[in-house]
Amino acid sequence: MHVDEELASIPVPRTLAERRAHARKRLENGSQMWLATGGDGHGPHLIPVAYVWSGSALYTATFIRSRTVANIERRPQARVAIGDTADVVMIDTSVSLVDVLGVDSDIADRYAKVSTDPRTSSDGTFVYLCLHPRRIQVWNGLHEFVGRTVMRDGRWLDEPVDQRNDATRRP
């Protein structure tokens, strides 16, 4: 393959603004995610769950006596992945637990459309998780690994922060 052909076959990375818009669209229009938690001595725990986006936080629900909830009680952080390995929105979050009766009715109604409605189960079966994004990264291939951070410290970015590939850093 000629050098010009090889270079032409490498996709052009999206701009920060394009990736930020892609993340927002995925959050607003999606309803399925992978949720990873970890607790002291329990190791990582990964589950597929439905979610709704409030405009500033993700909401999901799970069994109150689950390993996920136990992990969050010990360490109120989680990592979320939306999409697949070829086009991912990766989100690091802080997490709070919200009683089923304490969640906003709009959130509960929207959640009931994408999953089981916790309000229809007996008290003490489910709990909502409110996940507040702290960092969001977006990429759809190795060519987009640099510049993947679109949110940091809970704020959408207007300027790129990761200008080089961390994998190329030397010790």
* H/E element sequence: HHEEEEHEEHEEE
β-sheet strand percentage: 35-45%
How widely separated are the two ends? Answer: 34 Å
Q: In percent, how helical is the residue content?
A: 10-25%
Number of helices: 4
Which sheet architecture does the biggest sheet show?
A: 9 strands, antiparallel
Quantity of strands, as a count: 9
Outline: globular
The stretches of 5 or more residues where confidence is low (pLDDT under 50) are none
CA radius of gyration is 18 Å
**Average pLDDT rating:** 90
Structural class: alpha+beta
Structural commentary:
With 171 residues, the protein is an alpha+beta fold. Helices cover 22% and strands 37% of the residues. Strands 1, 2, 3, 4, 5, 6, 7, 8 and 9 form a 9-stranded antiparallel sheet that branches. A hairpin with a 2-residue loop joins β8 and β9. The two termini are 34 Å apart.
Strands, helices and their partners?
Layout: H1 3-8, H2 16-29, E1 32-39, E2 43-50, E3 52-53, E4 58-63, H3 67-74, E5 77-84, E6 87-98, H4 105-114, E7 126-139, E8 149-152, E9 155-156
Antiparallel strand pairs: 1-2, 1-5, 3-4, 4-7, 5-6, 6-7, 7-8, 8-9
